[in-house]
Amino acid sequence: MHDTIVILDFGGQYTHLISRRVRELGVYSEILPFHASLSELEGGRVKGIILSGGPRSVYEEGSPRVGREFFRWCEEGGIPILGICYGHQLIAHVFGGEIERGERREYGRTILYVECEDELFRGLDVVETVWMSHGDNVVRLPDGFKVLGRTEGTPVAAYANQEKKIFGVQFHPEVAHTSKGLKILENFVLKICGCRPTWVVESWVDEAVKEVREKIKEGGNIIMAVSGGVDSTVAATIIHSAAGDRLHCVFVDNGLLRKGEAEEVIRTFREKMKFKNFHVVDAGDLFLERLRGVTDPEEKRKVISHTFIEVFERKARELEEEYGEFRFLGQGTIYPDRVESAATSQAAARIKSHHNVTLPERMRLRLVEPLAYLYKDEVRRLGEKIGIPREILWRHPFPGPSLAVRVLGEVTREKLEIVREADAIVEEEIRRAGVYEKLWQAFAVLLPVKAVGVMGDARTYEYVVAVRIVESLDAMTANFAKLDWSLLERIASRIVNEVKGVNRVVYDITNKPPATIEWE
Ligand code: XMP
């Protein structure tokens, strides 16, 4: 049992980041909605609680709360609490302090004057840079609380109640712009809460395999759809370690994959990873047929996911004839897929398949999700540990609806061929330039317009390809990559010369927001 830090989510945009930072310290963390019951916290594994930020104001009617009972329970159990931003204000409010609606928002990098270098701020200098994002302010602290630091606009930027082991910071220690943020979290998690840093990659592998074994011990086969992406590959490998040939993987080749991708996935599973029950369904023609005449992006997504379910179910039934009934469904669901922010939903669990479709309930299978508690970077580290090839672990993200979202308008065989070839050139040049792993994504999009060009003596009238290359940390925001002109020039001239039907290449120089990464 790992010592655990629970983060109660009040709907803040950085909640997952807090959780990841705690794990960087080697301590297991879990996000629960703010209204989680005390019984969910019982059992002795919770060593500390962090109250997250959130968009509301403590004075607003219906704003999310935890009450005195919660604080009494923590105090009796000797469980320290750290409030961040909204959490900081909420604690002060509940104990009878005063919060004032700020005249103006304090946003961005701010100077913090450290007034008390106590446990939480041990190792900090008297002046530090922190990241602020708030409107309201704590202006008077309750009895028993003392100020630890202030900024120009915030008289109580941090506080402590040593007796009750309650701490609060108005700024965001989890954000990289707070220069000693990780130090502050380390002081809280390791020193104040006394957590042992046992959350290391070796333990994830053993635990994941053990849990799967336990889940499937009654016997019966497991079916799982794999795409060749990081999550489903790592999950399938873990399940395979626990279940061996009881695991049947189904790879649906939807005919919309990147150049050489289907062959690569098949080779990896069958030859490199020695999966015996690896079944391939070649469904390219069916997908194309269903996509005929469909131009609306939402409609395209719908068609693709419905077709996927149909093909997968049909294959499952066929396999059952041969191998007997399936009892379990393996999935590569990871932690952020499950935990939604309290701001958007009160429900903590959501199910996805690798193709972003929910497999029908009528399959009545029990889920096996060995990565359900891991973040992407942890999945990659685990994958490295169990020997998943580097090309898979570090491959750029690829959307479930595949190249269909990169052919604007109707998807046809001819257009797919163009975008596939152009995409392969983009990837090859990006790899050759040694920047592939520094980029979030790099791909080609086929626009539904033709433009005039000239080749030799002749005028041409052919398609335009857009090249989209972005840097990002989590796909929530992204910047277009400012690459070397000569690299972009090489990409453009190769596409025009080598891909039949294209005479012009444009580079997408919009960031997200306001644009998205895919064009659809
Ligand atoms: P957007 O275009 O919304 O994309 O900025 C954000 C990230 O998500 C990927 N993406 C998808 N991934 N199924 C997926 O698994 C999808 O339907 C899908 N749509 C977009 C996109 O490639 C980018 O990394």
Poorly predicted residue ranges:
341-357
Q: How many domains?
A: 3
Question: Strand percentage, roughly?
Answer: 15-25%
Number of strands: 20
Classification by helices and strands: alpha/beta
Radius of gyration: 26 Å
User: In which range does the helix fraction lie?
Assistant: 25-40%
Output the strand order for the largest sheet: 2-1-3-4-11-10-9-6-7
- Which CATH first-tier class of the largest domain would you pick? Alpha Beta
Mean pLDDT: 92
CATH homologous superfamily grouping of the largest domain: HUPs
What is the CATH topology classification name of the largest domain?
Answer: Rossmann fold
Named once each, the bound ligands are: xanthosine-5'-monophosphate
Query: Under the CATH scheme, which architecture of the largest domain would be assigned?
Result: 3-Layer(aba) Sandwich
Distance between the termini: 45 Å
Largest sheet: 9 strands, mixed
The number of helical runs is 15
Rough outline:
globular
Defining traits:
GMP Synthetase, Chain A, domain 3; globular; Rossmann fold; about 525 residues; binds xanthosine-5'-monophosphate; 15 helices; single chain
Summarize the structure.
This protein is an alpha/beta fold.
Give a structural overview.
This protein starts with a strand and ends in a 13-residue tail after the last strand. By secondary structure, it is α/β, with parallel strands linked by helices. The protein has three domains: 4-192, Class I glutamine amidotransferase (GATase) domain (Rossmann fold); 201-393, Rossmann fold, CATH 3.40.50; 412-507, GMP Synthetase, Chain A, domain 3. The protein is built from 15 helices and 20 strands. Helices cover 33% and strands 23% of the residues.
